[in-house]
Write a structure and sequence with these properties.
The complex is a heterotrimer.
Chain A (H helix, E strand, L loop, with lengths): L1 H29 L6 H16 L6 H24 L7 H23 L15 E4 L2 E4 H23 L1 H11 L1 H6 L4 H23 L11 H6 L1 H8 L4 H20 L11 H16 L14
Antiparallel strand pairs in A: 1-2
Chain B lengths: L1 E12 L2 E12 L3 E5 L6 H9 L6 E6 L2 E2 L5 H6 L2 E3 L12 H8 L12 H14 L14 H14 L4 E5 L7 H18 L2 E5 L3 H7 L2 E6 L2 E6 L1 H6 L1 H8 L6
Parallel strand pairs in B: 3-8, 3-9, 6-7, 7-8
Antiparallel strand pairs in B: 1-2, 1-4, 4-5, 9-10
Helix pairs in contact in B: 3-5, 4-5
Chain C lengths: L2 H19 L2 H26 L7 H16 L13 H25 L2 H20 L2 H4 L5 E2 L15 E2 L2 E2 L2 H25 L1 H11 L1 H6 L4 H27 L1 E2 L6 H14 L4 H20 L18 H19 L3 H6 L21
The chains are: A mainly alpha, B alpha/beta, C mainly alpha.
């Protein structure tokens, strides 16, 4: 039972890690907290679900469409809403993204209906993989595998590609990066593109299990990017991954032992990410791996 | 009793030793200047005294009370006030409001405001030459006037020790002379000790009673202006002379 | 008298005599606006004056609403209650919200800017979890009815009349709500004009300098959080009274975002802005619904083609938040103001300058 739970937790955690990464990448490159991230996820997931259920369309195409949609929206937001606000306070820009999120989520929920449900024709369906006594839903394994691949690819890209290096440079020392000819606006746009891509892929997996399909309540899962990112530290890439895993495992374990934890209330697994976040913040106000601010006058 | 005693102060950041075993004393009623080339550790020293940084070793005491390790607002309560090199005013608020802010440690904010604080603020404003601008938003004043507001705000806290961070930065000769006069007037009429960091040697030599010179975080000279001017290490640091044997 | 003063005086007269002048629908909008305004005042104090972003406002609103309801209601088969005198219950509910704010405030004060915003998100989910698991408190998912204030809403058997005007539910609630709103406004004004307000604005704009002039920054941030939570508590009580029914679903993250929209659209840190923004966001859906026939694309009711009024409302205030931040950061208050007032809270960059990476 525990192994099963752990794997489920890892799988969910990997997806949350993807989500948190997209969020942290934008924060690192521009200091903006992108409250529209859940909307990006919903948009990506919506397009994937819609395209996948159309007749004769390969699933890969649906995924591509979803990724493109989320990325396009992210880019539009960055170019036309965030960039004109350059120089404004970061809280102001972040609140602006809240407005974007409101519009985005309202539209997606309007389309699927308040009590609605949008099916997705994913290739894994209900199929399971058996190893002895253990049963693993294929969708979960696919999620874990895909997320791990994407994260690994991202980390490699960040470390070795020239744009990846540029991104790290801007995050670590914007002034020197600018002096070396790295255009901050380009890197920021890149960060938002990545956010859109990561959100869409995370969205895909969030709507394939536990129950397939896009529902208004999927948005609540999307919000878990925030505690995941905070637990790890908003400006830490590694922290986002760790935070995502922690949230995923905590949620899965809480759900798995729900009966034993019934005294904590029904639905405890949904709130445990936030409790963990509050607990971490008590001890580390900047998250586990976040940088504490140094005061220079 | 000395106004400020710095004792073996050592500050380190991420591998760099910004201050290394610095010790000196500011006497009550003195105008005491800290000089040194860029990177010598002058701002770091000020920031430790204001409570923004914790030292790795050593201490700073004000009138015998230990200051290092205290939060900034507690240091203010000990009677220490400072100005900022990059002016730290509230640009949208009037000069009077900015000055009243400096009076925080004396104002009982949970009680209705008494008029005597505004009266005193008006006096101080007149003293620093801002009487006409009390109702002007601080952000639209000239740079020189903003520096006066900085100074006025520090004075409104009725400090015993005043820290001035590059008071003459960005000023031409006339403005510098006016600043020098004002600093002297503060010392003469209020009797408070003044510690200033300054690059303008003319100003420093003109008004300082004592000078402490730093270079690479180390104290290289400490004494009267004449003594420091003649000090060989100082000359080397500033003028790049070859150290003679 | 200046023109501005005349306009304000006229408006004050209309507001004071509203139950005799305005029909029930618009009175109800006024009630919505006032109930929302009280909560909004608290949030604009916290964000606009003290520079602390909180997404947890709905948590404290819930404490106010459910606190009042539980304390004032009679215990019944579905839900419990302590049957306290309603005015006492209201006061206790506000204090309860304040207590919750007090408990959370040390954490709040230690968190930098945006971390606080996200941490307070956690409060909302915690609150939702508690509400979902306390049926004796909430009466279940379908909610419970709210005990009215005695004399100000208790339905007598017969219709009452005052000065020839039918004195129905909306009329009865008008003066208690007006009293609450005026009180909230006066306290807000007193704070912003006091030294406390000055210190909070310094913490917002120049935190380091504030500490150095002697402001205990962490403690003052905690005060701001505490005051704002009490405002939300009162706002919650008023919401409960106006809607006459409380449902757990109301107090989720969407409500926090609505209040944030109110204070941003209205103009941060400014009382008139909070009130105007509150009126805008709170009254938008009902007004849109009422005039849905006139507006193309709007559905008149469920099942109708077009966008429903609540959804349209969300689109509009979401877009308004973006528009305000991009174009007129001082919001409605900025549009209305013609010359800077002395002693008016600073509004040059109403949202904290903060620290850039």
């Amino acid at each position: 039972m525990l192994i099963q739970l752990s794997l489920g937790g890892l799988s969910l955690g990997a997806v949350y890690a993807l989500l948190a990464l997209g969020f942290v990448v934008v924060f690192r490159s521009s200091g903006v907290v992108n409250f529209a991230h859940p909307a990006l996820l919903m948009i990506g997931a919506y397009v994937i679900a819609r395209v996948s259920t159309g007749a004769g369309r390969p699933f890969a195409l649906a995924v591509l469409a979803g990724v493109l949609a989320a990325t396009a929206v992210a880019l539009v937001v960055q170019r036309f809403l965030v960039r004109p606000m350059a120089g404004r306070s970061l809280i102001a820009i972040s609140i602006m993204t809240l407005g974007v999120d409101t519009i985005g989520q309202t539209e997606i929920i309007r389309r699927i209906g308040v009590d609605g449900y949008l099916p997705i024709a994913d290739p894994w369906g209900d199929r399971v993989f058996r190893a002895g006594d253990l049963v693993f839903p294929q969708s979960r394994l696919a999620a874990l595998g895909a997320a791990a691949l994407v994260i690994a690819a991202f980390l490699l890209w960040l470390r070795y590609s020239s744009w990846g290096v540029a991104m790290r440079a801007v995050a670590d020392d914007p002034q020197t990066a600018a002096l070396m000819g790295i255009r901050r606006t380009t890197v920021t746009a890149l960060a938002w593109i990545l956010a859109g891509m990561l959100a869409a892929v995370a969205g895909l997996f969030l709507i394939t299990f536990p129950s397939p399909g896009l529902q208004p309540v999927s948005a609540a899962a999307a919000l878990r990017a925030f505690p995941a990112a905070i637990i790890g530290g908003l400006d830490s890439i590694g922290g986002a991954i760790v935070g995502g895993l922690i949230v995923g495992i905590a949620e899965s374990v809480a759900q798995g032992y729900a009966e034993d934890l019934a005294f904590l209330g029904h639905g405890f697994h949904s709130v445990i990410p936030y409790l963990v976040m509050l607990a971490v913040l008590l001890v580390r106000p900047a998250g586990l791996f976040g940088t504490k601010e140094l005061h220079r006058v | 009793m000395s106004a400020l005693t710095v004792d073996e102060l050592t500050v380190r950041f991420a591998g760099v030793t910004a201050l290394d075993g610095v010790s000196f004393t500011v006497r009550a009623g003195d105008i005491h200047a800290i000089i040194g080339p860029n990177g010598a550790g002058k701002s770091t020293l000020f920031n430790v005294i204001s409570g923004a940084y914790r030292p790795a070793a050593g201490s700073v005491t004000v009138h015998g009370v230990r200051l290092t390790g205290r939060a900034p607002h507690r240091i203010a309560r000990l009677g220490v006030a400072r100005t900022f090199q990059n002016i730290a005013l509230l640009p949208g608020e009037t000069v009077e409001e900015n000055l009243l802010l400096g009076r925080h440690r004396l104002i009982r904010w949970w009680r209705p405001e008494s008029g005597r604080h505004r009266d005193r603020v008006r006096e101080i404003a007149a003293f620093v030459g801002l009487a006409r601008h009390l109702d002007t938003p601080a952000g639209i004043l000239s740079y020189g006037d903003q520096k006066r507001v900085e100074l006025g705000r520090a004075l409104c806290g009725e400090p015993d020790l005043l820290l001035l961070d590059e008071p003459a930065a960005g000023m031409n000769a006339n403005e510098t002379a006016a600043a020098a006069g004002l600093i002297r007037a503060i010392r003469d009429s209020l009797g408070i000790a003044i510690l200033l960091v300054e690059h303008d040697m003319g100003l420093v030599m003109g008004i300082a009673d004592r000078i402490t010179a730093l270079d690479f975080g180390v104290l290289i000279a400490d004494g009267t202006p004449d003594e420091v001017r003649a000090n060989h290490a100082v000359q080397t640091a500033y003028l790049g002379l070859e150290p003679s044997c | 008298m200046s023109r501005r003063r005349l306009v304000l005086a006229a408006a004050a007269l209309v507001v004071a005599a509203a139950p005799f002048l305005i029909d029930s629908f618009w009175l109800q909008q006024g009630l919505f606006a006032m109930a929302a305004a009280v909560g909004a005042l608290g949030l604009t104090l916290l964000l606009g004056q003290a520079g602390q972003l909180s997404l947890g406002h709905s948590f404290f609103l819930a404490i106010g609403a459910y606190g009042y309801t539980f304390l004032a209601a009679d215990a019944g088969p579905r839900a419990g209650g302590l049957a306290l005198p309603p005015f006492l219950a209201a006061l206790l509910a506000v204090l309860l919200a304040g207590l919750a704010g007090l408990v959370f405030s040390p954490i709040a004060a230690r968190l930098r800017g945006i971390y606080l915003g996200i941490a307070t998100l956690g409060l909302v989910f915690l609150g939702q979890h508690i509400l979902a698991n306390a049926p004796r408190l909430t009466g279940g998912d379908n909610g419970r009815s709210v005990p009215p204030l005695p004399g100000f809403g208790a339905d007598a058997g017969s219709t009452q009349y005052l000065l020839n005007v039918e004195w129905g539910r909306e009329q009865k609630l008008w003066y208690p709500l007006l009293a609450g709103t005026v009180l909230a406004y006066l306290i807000f004004r007193a704070i912003t004009r006091s030294h406390l307000g000055r210190a909070l604005r310094a913490v917002r704009d120049r935190e380091l300098m504030a500490g150095i002039v002697g402001v205990p920054v962490t403690r003052f941030k905690a005060y701001a959080f505490l005051i704002s939570s009490m405002y939300a508590g009162l706002g919650g009580v008023l919401l409960a009274l106006v809607f006459r029914r409380v449902v757990p679903e109301t107090f989720g993250i969407a409500l926090s975002i609505e209040y944030l929209a109110m204070v941003v659209i209205g103009g941060l840190g400014i009382a008139g802005g909070a009130i105007a923004g509150a009126a805008f966001v709170a009254c938008l859906p009902p007004v849109l619904e009422r005039y849905s026939g006139l507006l193309p694309g709007l559905a008149a009711g469920p099942g109708d083609a077009g966008i429903s009024a609540p959804v349209a409302g969300k689109f509009i205030y979401g877009a308004a938040v973006i528009a305000v931040l991009l174009l007129e950061p001082a919001g409605l208050a900025g549009l209305a103001r013609r010359r800077p007032r002395r002693n008016a809270p600073s509004a040059t960059e109403p949202i904290p300058t903060g620290t850039r990476k």
